[in-house]
Design goal:
This protein has 121 residues and is of the alpha+beta class. 45% of the residues lie in helices and 24% in strands. It has a domain at 1-39.
């Protein structure tokens, strides 16, 4: 094969990849909608798994206040190089009132092979 033929074959393969990517995305959206409708958290076959992964995100508007809180309440467990969403959420769930902090929870829909870790119960 010469260079032009190889380039042409590569372009044909890329077009097929894009076609399958659109098909996979469409099936994934359908699966997500069905699992939502049926209130399914996790389904699996012998080779694949689909599940929701919960995520917790924290935004801090007032770092000075939060630093004071950390010192006064010995709350260093919530600090990393960034805020630890899990540790902060535990404190809020336990009744701590944190001004200037917004906790947002979301889910990511995951479809993959069995090599992915199953969600925690």
């Amino acid at each position: 094969m010469n260079t032009l033929e190889l380039l042409h074959e590569i372009e044909k393969l890329k077009a097929k990849r894009d076609m399958f990517s659109d098909l996979i995305n469409g099936y994934t959206e359908q699966l997500e909608a069905l699992m939502t409708e049926e209130d399914e958290e996790c389904i699996e076959t012998a080779t694949a798994v689909a599940f929701w992964r919960k995520e917790t995100k924290v935004e801090v508007a007032d770092w000075a206040w939060l630093q004071k809180y950390v010192r006064e309440e010995d709350a260093f467990d919530i600090l990393q190089r960034r805020i630890s969403p899990a540790a902060l959420k535990r404190r809020v769930d336990a009744g701590a009132e944190l001004e200037g902090v917004t906790i947002r929870e979301s889910k990511s829909f995951i479809v993959g092979s069995k090599k992915h870790e199953k969600p925690e119960s």
